[in-house]
Specification:
Layout lengths: L4 E2 H10 L4 E6 L5 E5 H8 L9 H15 L3 E3 L3 H4 L1 H11 L3 H10 L5 H12 L2 H22 L4 E2 L9
Parallel strand pairs: 1-5
Antiparallel strand pairs: 2-3, 2-4
Helix pairs in contact: 1-8, 2-3, 5-6, 6-7
Length: about 160
């Protein structure tokens, strides 16, 4: 790779993670590409480009390149990252016992993420959460890049835009 990958960009992409989208890093150019499930399915099932609009044809060409090349690494999925675990670790890191116990109660069962968000707002620790989460994603990103032998630049100043 000519230039190291921006750690900030990798972290931002990991935090975006959405169902139905797959993000890849070109190991040689550092380009980050996002492809939909639909385009991956079309490539795997032998699509006809003429059945698609111009913009979709470009997306399908890129999906085909990613699918058929060994130049791309798929980013860890949201299932691989386990944001719930990050949230739980944050709860345990909170020094105030009452706040910590309340947060731990709020993350149990269905609706845990919504209740957690409401609680961190109520306790005024939203910025603490975002700093903790950014650091966790930074550590995950560094581990992923290093384990795949990808050079990167730590261009993070402690915060992530987004």
């Amino acid at each position: 790779m000519d230039h190291p990958v921006s750690l900030r960009k990798v972290v931002e992409e990991m935090q975006i993670g959405t169902d139905g989208l797959h993000t890849y890093l070109n190991k040689f150019s550092g380009e980050i590409v996002t492809i939909t499930d639909e385009h991956i399915d079309a490539v795997e099932s032998g699509y006809d480009l003429n059945d698609y609009s111009d913009w979709e044809q470009e997306a399908l060409k890129q999906a085909r390149e990613v699918h058929t090349s060994n130049d791309y690494l798929e980013f860890p999925s949201q299932f691989d990252i386990h944001e719930y675990d990050i949230m739980q670790k944050f709860c345990f890191s909170v020094e105030n016992q009452h706040t910590r116990e309340t947060l731990l109660d709020q993350i149990q069962g269905s609706g845990a993420f919504r209740r957690f968000k409401n609680s961190i707002l109520r306790f005024g620790i939203e910025q603490d959460w975002y700093k903790f989460k950014d650091q966790a994603y930074k550590e995950i990103s560094v581990e992923w890049l290093e384990s795949n032998g990808i050079a990167f630049t730590d261009d993070m100043d402690g915060t992530i835009d987004g």
